[in-house]
Amino acid sequence: MNKLSSLIAVKIIVLFTFFGLLSAVAMPKYLYINKCNQKCICKANQIIVETALAVAYADSLSKGIDHFPKKLTADMFEDGKIPTCPIDGEPIQFDAVTGKVFCPHHIHSHSRTLE
Prior knowledge:
Elements: H1 2-62, E1 93-94, E2 101-102
Antiparallel strand pairs: 1-2
C-alpha cells in the first residue's frame, strides 16, 4: 500500500508541475492579448463616435450651420450610450472645431493615426 500512495503522490506532483508551467507560459500571452483587445475596442469606439459626429455634422449642414456639435449626447448613439475607453470607462473625446476623435487618455497605441 505504501508503494501505491508514493506513486499517486509522484503523479500529483508531476501534474501540478505541468499545470504550473502551463500557466507560467500562458499568462503573459493572455495579458498581451488583453492589452491588444483594449486597444482595438478603443479604436472601434472612436470610429463609432466619428460616425455619430458625421451624422450630426450633416444634420447641422442641412440646417445651414457649418459646425460640429459642442458635446456628445446619448441620443446620438443607437444604444443610447456614449462610447468609452475600456481602460476606465471615460467617454471618447473629440475636438469640436475639427471633429477629430481621440482616446481620453491620449494613449499612443490607441491613436488611429498610427496605421
